[in-house]
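Appendix C. Worked example: Small ribosomal subunit protein uS3c
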Amino acid sequence: MGQKINPLGFRLGTTQNHHSFWFAQPKNYSEGLQEDKKIRNCIKNYIQKNRKKGSNRKIESDSSSEVITHNRKMDSGSSSEVITHIEIQKEIDTIHVIIHIGFPNLLKKKGAIEELEKDLQKEVNSVNQRLNIAIEKVKEPYRQPNILAEYIAFQLKNRVSFRKAMKKAIELTKKADIRGVKVKIAGRLAGKEIARAECIKKGRLPLQTIRAKIDYCCYPIRTIYGVLGVKIWIFVDEE
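Step 2, the predicted output written as structure tokens:
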């Protein structure tokens, strides 16, 4: 009873695909795996670093315009640059990196891709392989659990009630064509001394059905009263 499993790994080969496509000899497999992790971490760190720079520039701007941009950010879900997943395809002389992103505002700036390529080249140290980075915008951003988790994180860091943030995240999914959603937050909610878990569910969520396409994410939120954990399941469709 109660044997838990990651919904994505459970459905690999049926409704979920691998995010890395390459072949390696058994002795070189661990090196390839570490290289993939370095690439993904480097891209996420680059976006986080540039997002902070952008926010610092906004603080220096006029106070009235700052309030307007802040409110817009709140309404749009604060998901200015949320990566849903990164695909890595390796060939003999080329590494193809496809970044699936919700709102690619930062990476569309002039020289952003070239700068990211230089950072990746330093991190990977691939002399014989060239890097090819492509940006792919997600068609329905609010169907992605990572974007909803980022939205909830933004709201909680701004002292919004966790129940209000969860309900608003579920409301955002109405814009997307989905059949069910579940949001769970655990930790010291509202700064209470005893940690607990709260959950909101809407629609169907057949976790044991393999042919059901379910997207899932687990996201840590660092607040002033400790780390909270957010888990989001989205039932997209059934094949």
